[in-house]
Design a protein that fits this description.
Order of helices and strands: HHEEEHEEEEEHEEEHEEHHHH
Number of strands: 13
Strand content: 25-35%
CATH architecture of the largest domain: Distorted Sandwich
CATH class of the largest domain: Mainly Beta
Helix content: 25-40%
CATH topology of the largest domain: Acetylcholine Binding Protein, Chain: A
Number of helices: 9
Radius of gyration: 40 Å
Shape: elongated
Length: about 425
Amino acid sequence: MRRRRTSPARSLAALVIMALFGIALVFFPLRSRAVAKGGAPAKPVASGSAKLAASASAFPSGSASAAEGVAPFVPHGAASASALPPGAEPALSIPTGKGLPVSVNVAVFFLELKAFDDTKGEFDCTTDVRYRWTDLRLKFEKREAYRGYKEWRGNEAEDELAKIWKPNIDVTNRLESSSYVGHRLRIFPSGDVELITRMTAKYKVAVNAERFPFDRQYLVLDFLVREETTDEVVLRFNNEDVQWSRVSKNASLDGWDPGLVDLDADVVQGWNGDRYAKLTASLFVDRLATTGLAPIFIPLVASLLIPLLAIWMNKATPEGFEVEAFELANMGIGGLFSVIALSFAIYTSYAMIAGGDNTVTRLFGLNYATLALSLTIVVVLFRYNIVRRWWGPYVHEQVFKWIAWAMPVLTLGTSVAFLLVAAQ
């Protein structure tokens, strides 16, 4: 069969069509990707360090959106992607105008003391917490504020806080807070910032009942800086903060006498050797001793009389004793059960004193020791007459008289010593 020859013109045309088709496949998808929403071509992507800064500019969690006109957060060392003047910093980045670390002064005013449950180790209160720092980017002319500062309250303060840098400080021992949180923000011409936050919340504290009922407890607020280390943010206080930190004259707490507020700065160890600033504000309250007198100490002292009555009710004679030993032993056993019931009632109502060394547990120990000594005397001296059999009636009578006054003096003196040690 004879093969048909292909003309050069047809071959050239086929090559041209294939080339045009390949070009269309390459350029039309690239053009579609280069078109932004709305049909406008996208801007070319910068290269080098500008490309790195553009990828790094992102808003932190909880910050305002770009629609509100807030400059994005730019990590330290990366160039800004926005058109900022030379040397300017974004408003949400940490202020470095005075160098690092940024010093944040903290003061606490206890406005109202609502309740203190020393059994659970929880207290409710309303506080005004004042934070002060300096941000030179917020400086303005004095004539712009006729009162000497610019001020925002409530929602306006929250909106303004979303536009500036503020320390990320958390109260670590706070359990829960009310829905209302009030803010007052002041910015001074020098760039000094003062933020006061009012909040009603419940807090967890440790209770030390060693000196109960003459104990002093501390209502503590633990402030801790989150995210920024001590190389970036530190918590401080000065004499002005100490004077500002106090309790309201109108504040009162049932069963307690409020005192002074103490501030203490410290650091907390974090991961990889990082350290975070911590500040503790402590309001000490003294327990009113009369609140524990009737329900606790009167029954405790009264229970000490039971083993003493088991001794006093008897009388020594040349032949022995007038009262039978088993009757006095029954009295001592009844006193033992009464002390057990009393301890159960007290430890149920005041759980914080059950597991430690304090005046109440010492008095209960004295009760048990006195009961054990009383039952020993009943068995040895009253039941078997050991002293009379071994040394005669005279020694027997003198030993009984000595026990009758020495045992009450020793018991009551020890109990008074326990109370005096706790009250000092």
